[in-house]
Amino acid sequence: MRVSVIGCGHLGIPHAAAMAEIGHEVIGVDLDQARIDRLNTGESPIYEEGLPELLAAHTASGRLRFTTSLAEAAEFADVHFLAVGTPIDADGRSYDTGQVFGAARALAPHLTRPTVIIGKSTVTVGTTRDLAALLARLSPAGEEVEVVWNPEFLREGHAIDDTLRPDRIVVGVPSPRAEDAVREVYAPLLANGIPLFVTDPATAELIKGAANAYLGMKISFINGVADMCAAAGADVQQLTEAIGLDPRIGRGGLNAGPGYGGGCLPKDVRAFTASARTLGATEAATLLRAAEEVNESRPTAALKLIEQTLGRPVDGVRVTVWGASFKAGTDDVRESPALAVAALMHQRGATVTVHDPHAVHAALRRNPELDYADTLDDSVRDAELIVLATEWPHFREADPKALAPLVADPVLVDLRNLIDADAWRMAGWTVRQLGRPAQQ
């Protein structure tokens, strides 16, 4: 099948590569000529596990190519995925769907035959309806252009695996013809037993928001409990394991840490909160806003733990932060909790050096006031405190004995509960972990 993917960012590039992997001929579209040129050489402008191999393989085979021309994409494909960005709007509470409608307006004049547009971007409920009306009005094919909403549930760092082996595929369809097109696109995945959940577009739009809002509340819940554990001298890690065994709760996503970040979860919780208010569900909005407030408090909670460990304020202290990306497996630093903690310590007078195996360059653009190191050894040299803020295996596998002679004072605050604290203590380190007793 011939498909296009419009928008080549953290969503569009992995999706285009995955569609080629399952056998489709794919053309990706983006306005950035430099990005297109780079992609056509098989090189990815973003880091995502497994993506470089797929890009290289399928651009070389000719199954995947990239262009800046929507006319070329319209001529080539009968199904178009919309994967453009929907950042948070100027009001800070809703999605800016300007790129979605802008891409549709630019594509519309080239749609001269029956076509299915499959939206992947996260949007406000009602967007599918409005987009369908716009395309019917502006396209030569008129109402033969149909819009389906197929929200993504990708975890950054696992986008390829989550596209090729998702736990479910959700589609909001306006007609049996549109559903048939979706089934044809995803036929190789459906043949592997992946469930297809078919609903109306409005429900599909809300499913994505509800899923991420629930996950945000789950993370905020366990972070709030981590504060209780810290006050009581209890162990949040043991608590989490115990309550996670309850099938009504589950262990997935129930990890205490410096908060959620990235390009999806924060904006999705904000926008879903705003939707609840708009729809008159004020109690739901209050619940969601409470989850946001817990998440917003995490850098301050982390600073409190850091200063308790030091026994003094961070002013004048040389601190190394391990981690810049908002989570492991990606170079995405949008709303990164690690950088939020680093920036807060910098504001309080600390000298902060950041190290990340993949996200240093992205972090430097976002937080140029911080110092950066490309290697683990360089990052810790003469540091008085190490703060582990992103859960990269690179940090879990670090050798505490080899690192200890490089630091001014072997003290580590693990905000992800990632390392084997006992092994580090045996190597002479003082270790504190989030929501856990000082000594276990």
Automatic annotation (TrEMBL):
<dbReference type="InterPro" id="IPR014026">
    <property type="entry name" value="UDP-Glc/GDP-Man_DH_dimer"/>
</dbReference>
<keyword id="KW-0560">Oxidoreductase</keyword>
<dbReference type="Pfam" id="PF00984">
    <property type="entry name" value="UDPG_MGDP_dh"/>
</dbReference>
<dbReference type="Pfam" id="PF03721">
    <property type="entry name" value="UDPG_MGDP_dh_N"/>
</dbReference>
<dbReference type="InterPro" id="IPR028357">
    <property type="entry name" value="UDPglc_DH_bac"/>
</dbReference>
<feature type="domain" description="UDP-glucose/GDP-mannose dehydrogenase C-terminal">
    <location>
        <begin position="320"/>
        <end position="421"/>
    </location>
</feature>
<keyword id="KW-0520">NAD</keyword>
<dbReference type="InterPro" id="IPR036291">
    <property type="entry name" value="NAD(P)-bd_dom_sf"/>
</dbReference>
<dbReference type="InterPro" id="IPR036220">
    <property type="entry name" value="UDP-Glc/GDP-Man_DH_C_sf"/>
</dbReference>
<comment type="similarity">
    <text>Belongs to the UDP-glucose/GDP-mannose dehydrogenase family.</text>
</comment>
<dbReference type="InterPro" id="IPR017476">
    <property type="entry name" value="UDP-Glc/GDP-Man"/>
</dbReference>
<dbReference type="InterPro" id="IPR014027">
    <property type="entry name" value="UDP-Glc/GDP-Man_DH_C"/>
</dbReference>
<dbReference type="Pfam" id="PF03720">
    <property type="entry name" value="UDPG_MGDP_dh_C"/>
</dbReference>
<dbReference type="InterPro" id="IPR008927">
    <property type="entry name" value="6-PGluconate_DH-like_C_sf"/>
</dbReference>
<comment type="pathway">
    <text>Nucleotide-sugar biosynthesis; UDP-alpha-D-glucuronate biosynthesis; UDP-alpha-D-glucuronate from UDP-alpha-D-glucose: step 1/1.</text>
</comment>
<protein>
    <recommendedName>
        <fullName>UDP-glucose 6-dehydrogenase</fullName>
        <ecNumber>1.1.1.22</ecNumber>
    </recommendedName>
</protein>
<dbReference type="InterPro" id="IPR001732">
    <property type="entry name" value="UDP-Glc/GDP-Man_DH_N"/>
</dbReference>
